[in-house]
Amino acid sequence: MASKDRILRLKEETRCNILDASLKIVKEGGWDALSMRKIADEIEYTAPIIYEYFANKDAILMELTRKGFLLLAKKLEEARNRHRAPAKQLEAMWLAYWDFAFAERELYQVMYGVRVSCCEMAKILPESERPMDLIWDVIVELMLPHVGTEEEVCIKYYTFWSVIHGLISINMVNRGNTDETNQEVLKTAITGIIRSIKG
């Protein structure tokens, strides 16, 4: 039994090492630099061993995408839980979203297809819905006592997401402004949308 547990633990460690090595390669050379051969070299294994854990590069990208959405959801929950008022929760959550995008730049890029061709992977991951659900629920709470239709909530969510994701994307492709300007735009947008929800 102990031997089986040890084998499982070693397999999980190797799997994590593959993912960590993948992110390291991307951080150093961008998404175009990622290959199964480079991953194998980074962890000092042979390429066939990598294929025992992941069928191909897309499978690694899928797992990194999943990891990114789980981490983002955790950051959003932490931000929400620091406040009681829905307006403060929304502001904190969107600021946490912004911080995540730049602290975990490579994960954000693969999650949302910014500077990386990630196709439609995120759409098939159940984890990709969690960040949206967290924010959606707070928007609904902010609308109380009048809860809008699903379409009204959807419009508010996508208004938030469009502005914030757009600003992040602009900055990731090096067309953004100073941090001070970005923070001002971010806070102005969040405050304005919250005000429109509260009516």
What does it look like?
By secondary structure, the chain is an all-alpha fold. It folds into two domains: 1-54, Homeodomain-like (Arc Repressor Mutant, subunit A); 64-198, Tetracycline Repressor, domain 2. 24% of the residues are buried. The longest helix has 28 residues, at 2-29. The protein is built from nine helices and no strands. The chain starts with a helix and ends with a helix.
Summarize the structure.
The chain is 76% helix and 0% strand. With 199 residues, the chain is mostly helical.
Please tag this protein with its features:
mainly alpha, Tetracycline Repressor, domain 2, transcription, HTH-type_TetR-like_transc_reg, HTH tetR-type domain-containing protein
Distance between the termini: 61 Å
Residue stretches low in confidence (pLDDT < 50, at least 5 long) are none
Largest sheet: none
Gross CATH architecture of the largest domain: Orthogonal Bundle
Could you tell me the CATH topology label of the largest domain.
Answer: Tetracycline Repressor, domain 2
What does the oligomeric state look like here?
Answer: single chain
Over the alpha carbons, how many angstroms does the gyration radius reach? Answer: 20 Å
